[in-house]
Amino acid sequence: MTLPFALRLPVIAAPMFLVSGPALVIAACRAGIIGSFPTTNCRTAEEVDAWMTEITAGIDGAPWAANLITHSTNERLADDLALVAKYKPPLVITALGSPAPVIDTVHGYGGIVFADVIDVMLARKALAAGADGLACVAAGAGGHTGTFSPLALVSVIRGFFDGPLALGGGIADGAGVAAAVAAGADLIYMGTRFVAARESMASPDYKAMLAEAGIADVVVSSAVTGTPASWLRASFDAAGYTVDGGAPTRDYNSASDGRSRWRDIWSAGQGVHAISDERSMADIVDELDLGFIAAQARLTAWPRRTSRS
């Protein structure tokens, strides 16, 4: 399948819980990449409706994506899927469950479905369920993360799948985008780099912590949801949680023990080092573009030998 997207850069601004809203999606699309948001960022289906109205009115037909949680704990999936059918995002990304519940609806209006996967087994299951493409979440990604190297994961999956593939995991600059494309990805699934964008819904304190953090400040823990995810260690300390405390079962609801875990514990991937301050999405994408062009030039200029001698 050839991706039906005209983009400045092959990048999806990954859907981030409590971070991605209409302003960030619109800014991403206007900058020439794919903006996305998880419908669970809205408290009600009516709010999803309002967000999708705002997004579609603000992007002048540019490609965008909606992210649906298909895990059994998402009691609003049917309502949100009905709104997907109404607004017809060209790309729907499923996460934390099989893509099967959304396939017929999205295909019905001509959209395509990517399934968020962290390993080869889940990739095969998603494709068997009818997914058109994969959003491969590798080691180094923010939020719910995988454990395999991005380059190794894309190489293995390309051994049995030649369709559209997005790759994420610690990719935060233009050189990383170029490297992922060279390795076999069609799109790059980039989240952390955009959390501190001016248009994101992240709090000022969250953005400030990101600007001060480095790669060593990111920790993987299942304490928040019962599923391994990448977080800023300092936010654990500030919220009074322990990194080693594991949730006994999967729980993706935001509140627990009178505290809002997702509000008070902040996600970040290993690309956090690329954040130095709050900047507009347009400025961030400009910087990514320059880095991507420079990386392409380095590859072209590499002094390749033409024989074994």
Automatic annotation (TrEMBL):
Domain of life assignment: Bacteria
Protein name: Nitronate monooxygenase
Organism listed in the record: Sphingomonas alpina
InterPro entries named in the record: Aldolase_TIM, NMO
Residues passing through the membrane, by range: none
Keywords: Flavoprotein, FMN, Monooxygenase, Oxidoreductase
Taxon lineage: Bacteria, Pseudomonadati, Pseudomonadota, Alphaproteobacteria, Sphingomonadales
One Pfam family this sequence matches: NMO
Keyword Nucleotide-binding: no
Database matches in Gene3D superfamilies: Aldolase class I
Family recorded in the similarity comment: Belongs to the nitronate monooxygenase family. NMO class I subfamily.
Gene Ontology MF, one: nitronate monooxygenase activity
